[in-house]
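Case study B.
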Amino acid sequence: NAGVMQNPRHLVRRRGQEARLRCSPMKGHSHVYWYRQLPEEGLKFMVYLQKENIIDESGMPKERFSAEFPKEGPSILRIQQVVRGDSAAYFCASSPTTQETQYFGPGTRLLVL
Amino acid sequence: DAKTTQPPSMDCAEGRAANLPCNHSTISGNEYVYWYRQIHSQGPQYIIHGLKNNETNEMASLIITEDRKSSTLILPHATLRDTAVYYCIVRVVSNQGGKLIFGQGTELSVKP
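Model:
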């Protein structure tokens, strides 16, 4: 049973470009969480999605950031017009239900030049 | 904000037990204690969780005090590969999900 998969593992963007980060949950998991870890800081919750629904986006920046988890395919975290402060590691986690344990992927390291 | 307090760092000799403490004095009755670790900026790895009873799995043991205000994660025979940041998290699950609120964790260094 494959774990949570994220791609790309590393992403380099210039200021003003768009970044798309993908997360494929574990098989049988329909709940996805996104977290961000800024350099030298702890992990911060961003958004929680179930298939086709955003349930909790209380940790998402109000502008430029969006997330989706379509019926088919991976969850996508999209960052428009990236700035240097968006450079961070972005982790997703999945669980089969709301109550059960979250398992994390390896992360995507975003570097904005 | 995180509802837990952990020492920022600890050392442990290889082969000895590592005992990592965590205070969560404001924990509520429906909140679980979860432990994750992060090895050198990899994705956090789930270790163990519990509500009020002590728990054990192939990785570790979790001892929760009777009043649930503190807990201890025990790695029975620490190896160099257990060097990591260990996070103790109090998690409440609701209809809005069960997001994890990470604190600063304990940086465990296992030394030969």
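The interface with chain A takes residues 34, 36, 38, 41-46, 49, 93, 95-105 of chain B (CB under 8 Å). The remaining cases will be described in the next quarterly update.
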